[in-house]
Amino acid sequence: MDKKNEILEVTFELFTEKGYQASMSDIAKKVKLKTPSLYSHFENKEEIMDIVIRREIYSFFTELENKLISLLDVEVEKALREAYFFILDYYSDKGRIRFWRNISLINNLELREKSREYIQKRELVIAKLTKQIFEKGTREKIIREECSEGCFFLYLAMIQGVLDGMLLYDDNSGIDMEVFINGVWNSYWQGISSGR
Predict the structure, then answer these.
(1) What is the pLDDT of residue 1?
(2) What is the pLDDT of the chain when averaged over all its residues?
(3) Secondary element (H or E) of residue 1
(4) Cα 76 from chain centroid?
(5) Which residue has the higher pLDDT, 174 or 13?
């Protein structure tokens, strides 16, 4: 692996652990360089963080977009369930949850705003694809008509809530996450399904 990619990988790990508080000296120490040597690869910490954040955002949303496209012609319940579990599987590594949480805590306003823009731009595509699945469900009378848009927003909120649970509860909490994740899905589907 070349040094530039090693720096980016180490920065990802450090951002996961420390957020934007990770320093150039933290990065240099992990890649066994003197801090000034980092500047031969990158202009500054903001550039390194921007690349790392952009790469992860792009990677996740590209995978999710491809998954949703593959689910557009699948039976509605199966499509929504697979998308739900696809997202949760991506975040099964708690480091990834912390990584995304740390984006909102960046104290460099310019970088935080750029990161937010990257996310919002990609989320629009994901929302459009997901809504197509919900619209199909309403058209086919699989999803109750009166809750169509609300069901979509509840779907997003449900995923966010489960991710919070995954971040907060460890293996010693006494909560079986598999039972939790499946139970949430089953309750959600029973609530929005027309029963057909």
Answers:
(1) 64
(2) 92
(3) none
(4) 22
(5) 13
